[in-house]
Amino acid sequence: MNIRVAMIKLLFAGLILSAAASAKDYETVELEPPHLGGMKVGFNIILPRGYGASTRQYPVLYLLHGYTDHYPAWVSYTRLTDYARSYDLIIVMPEGDNGFYTNSYTDRNLRWEDFINLDLIPYVDSHYRTVAARRGRAIAGLSMGGYGAMKIGLKYPQMFAAAASLSGALAVARGKHRPIKDPSMQKLLESVYGPPESPGRAAEDPFELIKKLKPEERPQLYISTGSEDFLLADNREFVRLLSELKVPYEYREFPGKHEWSVWDREIQVVLALQAPVMGAAR
Q: Which of 53, 107, 176, 263 is the most exposed place for a label (fewest CB within 10 A)?
């Protein structure tokens, strides 16, 4: 009986250790960033294996969630924590609410782009051992976050060596060039970008931003989407523009919808592509 009890205790202890190890796969940090008016927002961060026992600096991937999701989405719906173990890379997943990673046209307390560039990145660089330079920084995202990653990566090429969009809403800022049929979405987008004819939209539009970059400024670009995704046409149009401008890129189109099974697979591709650019491949 004593042996049986001992075995049960050992098994129980093993389960606790396993759960604890799983809980340490990522950390959650809460901030009150100035560019969000002091609103409390969180981000999840995955640290590479051996981070605590090392003194080296690590590159960082900023990974953005989609519309109606929040910062826990990537670790909740994919096996990202498992995939991350293969790379010497920090992965940061910030809150973006439904703000399209853009400074709001109507609310000065909702400056989501400035939050990423002026609050979050400096915080991460000052609190973690990062390669705090373009060569050690990449950005990626899905849907709304795919747009955000491509927009921010092209708008601030001096900050990011690579940008990836998965099923990205790449035409969301096009305004009069891409009318929105849904009245509620149109209202939301006008609160973010201003009226459809607003000249300020060009500064938030990947279709316009890519035209301004010199060849030496361009980050590595990766775009992917499912063949049944409702954003397929926008992605194809963006890729056609890249081809016309002779901008290097990698594009993948495959069977699939706007869904997590697609993004769970595609984040593995993003890691495999971006890690070598940042020196994070093992």
A: 53
8 pLDDT more than 90? no
Report pLDDT digits (tens) over 171-207.
999 987 777 778 899 999 999 999 999 999 999 999 9
Amino acid 198 reads S
Contacts of 192 (CB under 8 A, 6+ apart): 99, 100, 102, 104, 105, 106
Please check whether residue 130 is in contact with residue 59, taking contact to mean a CB–CB distance below 8 angstroms. Answer: yes
How much is the pTM? 0.91
Question: How do the domains of the chain map onto residue ranges?
Answer: 26-278
3-state secondary structure 76-144: HHCCHHHHHCCECCEEEEECCCCCCCCECCCCCCCEHHHHHHHHHHHHHHHHCCECCCHHHEEEEEECH
Fold for 26-278, please state it: Rossmann fold (3.40.50)
Q: Write the single-letter amino acid at 206.
A: P
- Burial-class residue 249 by CB neighbours within 10 Å (0-12, 13-18, 19+): middle
pLDDT band of 24, cuts 50, 70, 90: low
Residue type, 133: A
Cα–Cα distance between 181 and 159 in angstroms, integer? Answer: 35
State how far Cα 42 lies from the chain centre.
14
pLDDT tens digits, one per residue of 79-97: 999 999 999 999 999 999 9
